[in-house]
Each structure stands twice: as structure tokens, then as C-alpha cells.
Amino acid sequence: MCGMAHEATPPAPGRVELETRDARLPLHARLRDALAARIASSEWTPDRPLPAEAALAGHYGVALGTMRRVLGDLVELGLLERRHGAGTFVRRATFDASLFRFFRYGDPQATAPTSRILDVRRAVLPPEAAGPLGEAAGATALHLHRLRLRDDRPLLVEDIWLPLPRFAGLDHLTEPHLDGGLGELLYPAYEKRCDIVIASAEEVLTVGAAGAADALLLRCARYEPLVVVERTARTHDGTPVEWRRSRGRAADFRYRIEIR
Amino acid sequence: MCGMAHEATPPAPGRVELETRDARLPLHARLRDALAARIASSEWTPDRPLPAEAALAGHYGVALGTMRRVLGDLVELGLLERRHGAGTFVRRATFDASLFRFFRYGDPQATAPTSRILDVRRAVLPPEAAGPLGEAAGATALHLHRLRLRDDRPLLVEDIWLPLPRFAGLDHLTEPHLDGGLGELLYPAYEKRCDIVIASAEEVLTVGAAGAADALLLRCARYEPLVVVERTARTHDGTPVEWRRSRGRAADFRYRIEIR
DNA sequence: AAGTGGTCTAGACCACTAG
DNA sequence: TAGTGGTCTAGACCACTTT
């Protein structure tokens, strides 16, 4: 009876009011939005569980079943993950190395891809990166130039742009001990050194042609067709914080989609 | 109390036993599989609703909430769709024209794509189609050659292969009044004339080069890069029934993916 | 008006994980 | 063993669609 949308009495002690705007929306939808907002605000981190579902239900004054539905919805949306017996956690992105799902060479299961960072330096954001990142035109940022290989064969060339005040924690890696501080994957480094948790991303695939530099690094002919993947990665609150452009030989490209 | 997995007493009248193998699986999972099997068997068609959730729950002797969860799972899996007040229906595929989501030309919202069927005839299945369709190497099938356009500009060339005993209902279209019997979309024709409901598909994207015939039809240069999409479409029981290969200029190609 | 799915509550019991 | 999520039940009431 408590916590119903049409409830007029003040909330019981320890209970919390939900947004009254959109009061027409079902309780579970308002609850979902309220929790999504708390997740976006980084109130919880991926390494510690949220309060138990029973505690959350009590906090908001809703039935356990309603809270379970809301948490399930947030799992489906990719914001949370639940571990039986352990708790409910904010989700950490796992698509860091996922570019390789597009490019076939060798046995994807058998051989682990590797990274070679060719260059790290401060530079002016190019317009194609400044736009998606919501940064000013002439802003300065950290620029990584990276090669990704499988079996010592170059598969992908990457340019990665990281807006600078925010990624200052990676700045000292500008020194020549290049591969020293960054491991195979970048997202764990973002989290450890800059407290930035990547939560979602958008990728756009197009086809282009190899320039002179691409041809050299990818060991292919100039003007050979390349598949270009541009990724904008975001934190939980939707702020874009990384933009990268990856290029690989179109002949190696193969993408499989399952529809409905 | 009734219908529990460990229930030893015989089912009450009007109640149905679920598979006893996998009796360790939760009730909702066994129920889901049972309903999925009935959907695959074409027991229900997209134009008439399934029995109401209350009837299904009674039939299997489970609580309403359990049946609701199962039906929700099947909606998520893309097998069913629910319409408030109207009922629960087997889902009809809606991705017939979805190739256009890859190719940009004109305003996708403003201009409707059109089809021009260039040829329909019986022919021997090529090996690349016979494999995915699970057909014998030399089998004969119906072959459609089709051009898809937007604003009178050719965007896609398609070769579509339909195994023949099954698609005999389209066979008389081999006569010269080509576009007569097939509309803009093929899947509604499959359903009306051959009783085949497409439910899911797999698409593989690669990059190739334009041959002489492609170049002519797509009005592009020979050897210009093309994006090649190969689709295997299946019925609800997973049987592959259509294989098509579509080609379009890589310069027009743009694919956007949202990750988690 | 009758019948359908959608929301919300309440509570019992089970299975898993961690300290 | 304490605490977490997972399963299942039971039933009240609401919102929508159809006839």
C-alpha cells in the first residue's frame, strides 16, 4: 500500500520520494530512472556491490518484486550486473579489444592479439575528434598512435584521442618508456589512473583507402580498401571521453550479425 | 504447490507435464523451451493470438506470474510480441528491407526504396548458397535477380536463392510479367503464396570488388570496392529457407553500432 | 462489456558466495 | 553461517483493445 503513485501521505521514515514529474509513468519506470541517475552520478563503483535488493526496496518503500524487476531492467540495459550470492554491481565495459571481432586472421581463439604503442604525445584535437567529444575546436588532448597485431601480423592501426584535463593521469607516459605504463588494454588504465569507467560506446563502420602511412604499417598497397571504425566511448552518465579511429585491411574484414 | 518440479502426483485434469529430462532446470526455463517448441512447430500463426496468459498458466498448472515471466522471455528472444488488450502473437520478421540500413543515399526517411526484379528463373543452386541452405550440391532452385533503388539511383544488386520444392508457389512468376506478382517486399509474398514465415536471419558483411555486371548495374567503375552482405534467413524452427547476396558501393556504406 | 495484458504487492523457500 | 540473489506462488487492481 505504501509508495503507490497516488499515495498522498508523506513518506514513512527512511523512505524516499521519487520524482513527481512524470507521475503518470509506472512506478517501475520512475524507479529505474532514479537508479540510473544514481549510477550515472558514480555513487557506486564496479568493485563494490550496491545495497541488497531488499534494502533498496525498503529505502524506496516498494515491494521486493518491483525492485527486482527494476534491477532486472537495468541489467538488460547494460548498466548493472548481478552475481548470485555476491550482490549487484555497476557494470564495467568489456568491449575494449572488441575491434578484433571484425577482423579475421589466424585462429581468433588460439592467438591473443597484442598492442604496440607507436607514439604518445599532446596534440591539438582534430575536428573529427573534437566534434564527437564535445570539445572546442583548438583544444589540446592526448594522442596515442597504436598498432594491433595477431601473430606478429599488423591488423589494425589506431589513433586514439583523450581530452586532456581529464586524462592528465596518463600524461607522464609521454616519455620514451612508451609501452611501460599501459597494458594490452586501455580501459583498465583509464580506470586505475584517471578514475574513468567506460560504460558504453558507439561505432561507425565505413570503407576507405590506405594512405602512405597506413600502407606502410599494415604492409599493404597504397589505395587498398580499408575498413574504418570510428568509436566514441562514454562513461555511465553519457559523457563522451574517448574517440578513436581504427583502420584495417578490408580483405581481412568480416562481420557477422544475427537479426532477431 | 501444483506443477512443481518435484511434484510426484499425476497432473491434475487439464494440466500438462513438462519434459522430465533436465528436471534440474528451473520451471520457467522448461516452460520457455516447451512454448518455443510449440512456436517452432507452427502451431500458432502471426495472425491469431495465442491462448491468454491465464489459460496457458492453467494449462501447465503454474502461477500466472511464472507464465508472464516465460512469455516475457520469449518476447525478449524475438519469438513473440504482446499487444496490450489484444493478445500475445507469434512475431513476424520486419527486417525484409533492412539492407538499406547499411547504405546511405538521399534522406532515408524521406524517400522510399524501390525494387526492380530483373530476372526470375529456375537454376542450379551455386555451392555458396547450397551450403547455408543445407541443400544438395546440384539441387535446382528459384533464382531472383533484383535491383534496389532509391530516387531512381541503383543502390544494391541482389541474387536471391529459394529452394524449389518449398517455394513452388512462386514458380509461375517465371513468366515474363515479372514484377507482377511480387511486391516491394518478398517476405509477405513468401507467407501468402508459400506459407513460409521468416523469423530470423544471419548476415555476414565483407568487402569485395565490382565485376563487369555489377559495375554496369550500380553505375560504378569496375573493381570499385563493394560491400557484400550475405543473408541466410530462417523460419521459426531454424530451418534456413532463403539465401541472398547483396552488393552495394562501399562508398555508400555506413554502419552504426551501439555497444552495451 | 468482456477479455486481454500491465502493474504492484506480499511472502515462502531455495541456491549460491563469502567471511 | 549469514547474507545475497533466484524461483515460484497468489491475488488485487488497472489500462487497453475489441465486439
UniProtKB/TrEMBL annotation, chains A, B:
<dbReference type="InterPro" id="IPR036390">
    <property type="entry name" value="WH_DNA-bd_sf"/>
</dbReference>
<keyword id="KW-0805">Transcription regulation</keyword>
<protein>
    <submittedName>
        <fullName>Transcriptional regulator</fullName>
    </submittedName>
</protein>
<keyword id="KW-0804">Transcription</keyword>
<dbReference type="InterPro" id="IPR011663">
    <property type="entry name" value="UTRA"/>
</dbReference>
<dbReference type="Pfam" id="PF07702">
    <property type="entry name" value="UTRA"/>
</dbReference>
<dbReference type="Pfam" id="PF00392">
    <property type="entry name" value="GntR"/>
</dbReference>
<dbReference type="InterPro" id="IPR050679">
    <property type="entry name" value="Bact_HTH_transcr_reg"/>
</dbReference>
<keyword id="KW-0238">DNA-binding</keyword>
<feature type="domain" description="HTH gntR-type">
    <location>
        <begin position="25"/>
        <end position="93"/>
    </location>
</feature>
<dbReference type="InterPro" id="IPR036388">
    <property type="entry name" value="WH-like_DNA-bd_sf"/>
</dbReference>
<dbReference type="InterPro" id="IPR000524">
    <property type="entry name" value="Tscrpt_reg_HTH_GntR"/>
</dbReference>
<dbReference type="InterPro" id="IPR028978">
    <property type="entry name" value="Chorismate_lyase_/UTRA_dom_sf"/>
</dbReference>
